[in-house]
Amino acid sequence: MPINERTNSSSRSSFDPTDETVNNVINVSTSITESNSSYSASGGLSGSGYSHTGAFADKPTSNNFVWQSGAGINYLQADVDASVYKPLSLSRTVHNAVDNPYWSTPTPTGKTGIGLFQGANLPEGVSTLFDYDFDFDAVYGNSGNTGFEGTTGRIDLSDLEYGDQLRVRFDFNIVPQIANTTVEPALWYSNRDDDDNITFTFPLTTQPIFYGGGTVGNTYLNRVEISAWITSNEDVNALTLPAIKSDNPVIIQPLGLLITIIR
Question: pTM for the full model?
Fold first, then answer.
């Protein structure tokens, strides 16, 4: 079972989301060591790597997949009352629209379907860190109580090795609807056995974010980091998506995921 090993969060007020979000992510991600193809003394693959996507399923097609002020995914009073974590789906359609390299040097790989960097910075032996086509209900039905019901896509851990560290930076905007609101970002996580049976479902949480007086209706950018160890077959086969829980109604504008694997 993975350990929620490192957490931090940051926020900035009055952020108006634009296409510059991806550029900001690139500036941060370039500080991470790129992958290499060397092998460790123990015989396992070595070399860290990363991937990024902005392919959240509910981004608006009517505005070129950019959130407009006050629009987003509603975390409702019913969600508050049920104390649920709301997983945020991924979409291949949105991926095809937003995860396109904007640079020419170095020359993009041209590989599609595997994130913004087209696989250029993935760890050795990892073909992708995103599965845009996974449909939970098609596999498990929609009558369960895992919290994944109705979701699509997932962070793909299937090529990882035991001992890898998963580190996820989740970028999102929050628009508080009530003063004195606490938001809890997390990875919603289900371990699965070798037969794809779900064994344990739980949140991997990070530091809660508090929005006090004067915050209602404003848009706040958050970049939180969540990490876990990959230690068993059930981790390699796990299902996971970013998720939000709140103690009051909020509007969520998911922006991007930067997935880093550290070895």
Answer: 0.82
